């Protein structure tokens, strides 16, 4: 059986093409999923940009955030069966979700929240895993005492939206988010931020709110540009986590004198290295599904495009590259 996918064109990597390939066969721990919806994330545009700088030998299928129906399972899979509705963020080393069918390791998937549509569900996994791992595995804010402060730089994006909600729901910290436009400020407030400040002249804006130091910082936007401010703001013995790679060396002298910790969060680490705890991602998604079905969290879906085509995927990438997205953008098949 042939399946359809939208892939990066190896002859012109700036563009996408429609391709057909043989339907893949599940490996031992794999699910074969009929994809129903896929979310487009900044990682998609970053990988696409990287492919344009290097020689591409064959079409590359992007997309790492999906919901769909299990069609077949591998011999080692016990938690899923054909017909199950699932969601997952995927594995950056394997063909992505911009395809009608996809193989995914069952250990990093979970049953889809029953109360969410395909599009609402697809908007969540990658950003949920990133936010959860950053907050509760790296920063460990769930153990913070009341009165501690968390600064989220980039509060209105996909990861920031969920990070605000998760921090408000599962910790006692005071959640401070950055945003600048009225609609993005309102969005952060609606997600549960205790305080929203303009990221421009951030240190002074926080000082005006009576905040000189913060105990935890989650940087979701331009680590280089914010690094000096982050170094100034972090409290002694504080913790910083960033998801954005740096372009220049980061001066860590201020962190040394404060005994502050710097953590990196990369959602694909567990699947890329098949870590012993790879199944933790499936467990996180299970907990997220429960919180969503109980109404304690809401989807971050903001905009939906229809149809797996070159045109819709190109339009989605352009929207993300414009840099003004609130929440998440999803393509339904």
Order of helices and strands: EEEHEEEEHHEHEHEHEHEHEHHEHE
Beta-strand content bin: 25-35%
Going by CATH, the architecture of the largest domain would be: Alpha-Beta Complex
Could you give the count of β-strands? 15
| The CATH H-level homologous superfamily of the largest domain | Medium-chain alcohol dehydrogenases, catalytic domain
End-to-end Cα distance = 18 Å
Could you name the CATH topology of the largest domain?
Answer: Quinone Oxidoreductase, Chain A, domain 1
> Describe the biggest sheet?
7 strands, mixed
Task: Report the mean per-residue pLDDT as an integer.
Answer: 96
Helix content estimate: 25-40%
Structural class: alpha/beta
The radius of gyration computed from the alpha-carbon positions, rounded to a whole number of angstroms, is 20 Å
Q: Supply the CATH class of the largest domain.
A: Alpha Beta
Stretches where pLDDT is under 50 for at least 5 consecutive residues are: none
């Amino acid at each position: 059986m042939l399946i359809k996918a939208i892939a990066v064109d190896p002859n012109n990597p700036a563009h996408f093409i429609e391709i057909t390939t043989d339907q893949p066969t599940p490996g031992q721990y794999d699910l074969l999923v009929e994809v129903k919806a896929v979310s487009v994330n900044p990682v998609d545009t970053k990988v696409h940009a990287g492919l344009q700088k290097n020689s591409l030998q064959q079409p590359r299928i992007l997309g790492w955030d999906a919901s769909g129906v299990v069609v077949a399972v591998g011999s080692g899979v016990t938690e899923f069966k054909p017909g199950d509705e699932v969601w997952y963020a995927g594995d950056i080393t394997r063909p992505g979700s911009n395809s009608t069918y996809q193989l995914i390791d069952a250990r990093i998937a979970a049953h889809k929240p029953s109360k969410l549509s395909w599009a609402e569900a697809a908007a969540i996994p990658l950003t949920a895993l990133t936010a959860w791992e950053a907050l509760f595995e790296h920063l460990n804010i769930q153990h913070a005492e009341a009165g501690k402060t968390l600064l989220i730089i980039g509060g209105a994006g996909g990861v920031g939206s969920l990070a605000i909600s998760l921090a408000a729901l599962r910790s006692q910290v005071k959640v401070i988010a950055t945003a600048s436009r009225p609609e993005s400020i309102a969005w952060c407030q609606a997600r549960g931020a205790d305080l929203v400040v303009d990221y421009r002249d951030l240190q002074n804006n926080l000082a005006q709110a009576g905040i000189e130091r913060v105990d935890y910082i989650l940087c979701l936007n331009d680590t280089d540009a914010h690094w000096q401010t982050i170094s100034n703001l972090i409290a002694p013995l504080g913790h910083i986590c960033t998801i954005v790679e740096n372009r220049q060396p980061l001066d860590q002298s201020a962190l040394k004198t404060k005994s502050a910790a710097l953590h990196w969060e990369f959602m694909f680490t567990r699947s890329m290295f098949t870590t012993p705890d790879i199944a933790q991602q499936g467990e996180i998604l299970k907990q997220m599904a429960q919180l969503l079905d109980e109404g304690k969290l809401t989807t971050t879906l903001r905009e939906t495009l229809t149809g797996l085509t070159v045109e819709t995927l190109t339009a989605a990438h352009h929207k993300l590259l414009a840099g003004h997205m609130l929440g998440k953008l999803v393509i339904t098949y």
